[in-house]
Design a protein that fits this description.
Blueprint: E1 2-5, E2 14-17, H1 20-24, H2 26-44, H3 70-89, H4 98-113
Antiparallel strand pairs: 1-2
Length: 120
């Protein structure tokens, strides 16, 4: 596999080459990529999903249970996703260890739930 995605601009350069062996264990291949992206996002994170903000900060005034501390909550969620995807990217995956499987499933749930918030 080779991926090159250039910086954001009108005619952004995107080149992706997928080799046959990349699809053989695609869940692990994708986990290896996702975990590195999540680590980078956590390192450079400047914000958090608006649902973690207190209602007086939200433009719609709706209380989603946020009471401040949004950045800390978001970093915790990113950490949980990183842990789960690290498990799925490891040599021993899939695991028979129920704790590891539970963490991986939780990470997938969080990833799906916060997919539209994975930007900085």
């Amino acid at each position: 596999m080779h991926i090159h995605i250039g910086p954001y601009r009108k005619n952004r350069s995107v080149k992706v080459r997928i080799d046959d062996h990349d699809t053989w264990n695609m869940d692990r291949t994708l986990s290896m990529i996702i975990v590195e992206l999540l680590k980078k996002l956590r390192q450079s994170s400047n914000g958090y999903p608006s649902e973690f903000a207190p209602p007086d900060v939200r433009s719609d005034g709706v209380n989603y249970g946020g009471n401040g501390g949004g950045q800390e909550k978001w970093l915790q969620i990113l950490d949980e996703m990183i842990e789960g995807f690290s498990i799925m990217a490891s040599e021993g995956w899939p695991s028979v260890d129920i704790t590891l499987t539970s963490k991986a499933q939780h990470a997938l749930h969080l990833f799906a739930n916060f997919y539209m918030n994975l930007w900085d």
